[in-house]
Structure formats: structure tokens, C-alpha cells
Amino acid sequence: MRHIFILVYVEIHQFFRRQLMLTETTMKLLFIPGFNNLRSFNSKARAYAEFHKAKRKVPGYRKFLETHQFSKPTFTGMVPNVYEIPSTDKENYVKQYSMNERCVYGKMP
Q1: What integer best gives the mean pLDDT of the chain?
Q2: Under a CB-based contact definition with an 8 Å cutoff, are residues 64 and 86 in contact?
Q3: How far is CA 32 from the centre of its chain?
Q4: Coil, helix or strand for 76?
Q5: What single-letter DSSP state applies at residue 3?
Q6: Is the pLDDT of residue 28 over 90?
Q7: Is the pLDDT of residue 26 over 90?
Q8: How much is the CA Rg of the chain, to the nearest whole Å?
Q9: Residue 71 main-chain phi, psi, to 5 deg
């Protein structure tokens, strides 16, 4: 349930964020003081959504997660623990998987 909530929340958040970024005046609303906890949650939710999208669409990343025996991060309340997601780098990801495996749906756009 939390998984679905996060993914839906991120889509709604992205829609409103795009609207706020249309003008300089409305963009200032994104940085109103006192909303640091919300901004922190938003960043973790967006990172979780990107992780989930890459896991579904990028064959090399899916294999990378399998070799690290990782399926998904845990949650603390409604907040995904994105720090649990294994980090990729040149040695453990870029050199291990071909260019096509690292692309969405396994082929170069």
C-alpha cells in the first residue's frame, strides 16, 4: 500500500511542481521556509519512484539488483529508506553491463 501511495504521490507532486516552475514568482513557493520536512520527504519519494522505474525498465539495473540480492528498500512509516538501495559506480555497474543493458528497455534510444 505504501509503495502505491508513494508512486501516486510522486506523480501528483511532479504535476504541481511543473506548474509552479512556470514563472519565477510561483517558483518561489517551492522554497518557502518551514517546509524542510516536506522537501526531505519529496526527495526520498522521488528517489524511490526513480529506483522503481529503473528496476522495471532497465535490464542491466535489474541484474545489478539481483547480484546484490536486493529487491526493495524498507519503509520507516511512510518514508522509504532510500539509503538502503545499492549504489552504482563505474566498477560495479558501468564496466559490468553493456551500453544497451544500461538503457531503458535494453536498447539505445
Answers
A1: 93
A2: yes
A3: 24
A4: strand
A5: H
A6: no
A7: no
A8: 16
A9: -110, -45
Residues 6+ apart with CB under 8 A from 29: 20
Q: What is the DSSP letter of 87?
A: P
Cell 539495473 belongs to 61
**Predicted TM-score of the model (pTM):** 0.88
Instruction: Write down the residue that cell numbers 522505474 correspond to.
Output: 53
Q: Which three cell numbers stand for residue 83?
A: 539509503
Alpha-helix residue ranges (DSSP H) falling in the chain: 2-20, 24-27, 36-57, 59-67
Q: Which residues contact 105 (CB under 8 A, 6 or more apart)?
A: 57, 58, 59
The predicted pLDDT at position 61 comes to: 95
Cβ neighbours of residue 65 under 8 Å, at least 6 residues apart?
55, 71, 86
Q: Which of 102, 8, 89, 10 is nearest to 54 (CA)?
A: 102
Residue 45 · residue 9 · CB < 8 Å: yes
Q: For residues 109 and 101, what is the distance between their CA atoms, to the nearest angstrom?
A: 12
Rounded mean pLDDT of 87-104? 94
